[in-house]
Structure prediction request, 329 residues.
Amino acid sequence: LASSEASVYSFHGQSVREERPGIIEGQGVMASNGSASSHITLNNGRQMPVVGLGTWQAAPGVVGAAVDAAVRGGYRHIDCAYAYFNEKEVGDALQKLFKEGVVKREDLWITSKLWNDHHGPEEPFKCLETTLTNLQLEYLDLYLIHWPVPLNKGYTWPLQPHMFDTTRSIKEDTKETWQAMEKIAESGKARSIGVSNFSAKKLEDMMEYAKVVPAVNQAYSPLGTWGTSGVKINLLDHPLLTKIGEKYGRTPAQVSLRWGVQMGNSVLPKSTKAERVKENLQVSDFSLSDEDMSELEKLEQTRFLQGTFWVNDSGSFYKKAEDLWDGEG
Ligand code: NDP
Ligand code: 1BO
Prediction:
């Protein structure tokens, strides 16, 4: 299926961009020569910009300014989701940028994600329509199934047992949902489709029926998602990132992002601070040496966001975190 080092899975002769489990996660891809380019070519030939602005936990009232600063500063990729509940403000910021002629729609890559309470054969279209209305766009560049976790209508979190939709198995739910995603792709309202938080096992299961091979399996939190509830390690305080950063005159965040990019991944740093937004894009004008890449490789590999909020003894299909990831770590 895949070598442990590679970030691309091959299914039916097509590649699925896959996360490389690690301390630093991105929207995984493999570069042919280990060097970073400004775009990544997906399995349908579309070109996705390598650095994208993350918008999870970018609060209403500040997310619009972050998008504005990002696009004016050169970002061409914004990562959104229905469940971030800030897409309207992102859309307002984009409209302003279009009207002022700062950027054209076709020069941007906009990703969004189908929320868990809209799985099934019909609901994905409704979720997409809400997202497009809020973002004030005609189409998305990439639409992802956010999590392999079906919820009953109207629920996000904090989760309680009655919120999980257990009327069908995860396999059946994913099949129905993916087939709807394929119709969305056919309609042109999402130019690429993919998944997020899927194990290789779940991807394999999809290959029994998928007509469109997912273009992306999104991984994320390239700065360690510091500040997120339950995350106890501040990656950016790691002495190795500081030491390597000093050598290149770069911040720990830039070292972390550069590592991700140099590994062949796309990275989605989130910040609502204009200076950091700018700093996080400046990762294409330096390279980490092979030696420094090897040092970073030796750090403990861990998943910062383990999805433990989907683990529930009585309601969920997932009784422990390993079940969600099919034991893949
Ligand atoms: P990140 O790893 O991007 O870390 C964000 C944190 O780092 C925030 O606290 C931010 O604070 C801080 N930060 C940003 N830049 C710097 C900097 N240069 N120096 C120091 N601190 C900095 O976390 P996320 O978990 O948000 O991941 C990024 C994106 O990935 C998300 O926003 C989302 O778009 C996507 N994602 C997708 C998921 C999925 O299930 N598919 C799950 C999780 C994330 P501040 O804003 O104050 O600068
Ligand atoms: C539970 C949502 C995580 C951010 O995408």
Residues 1-12, 18-36 have pLDDT under 50 and may be disordered. The longest helix spans residues 170-187.
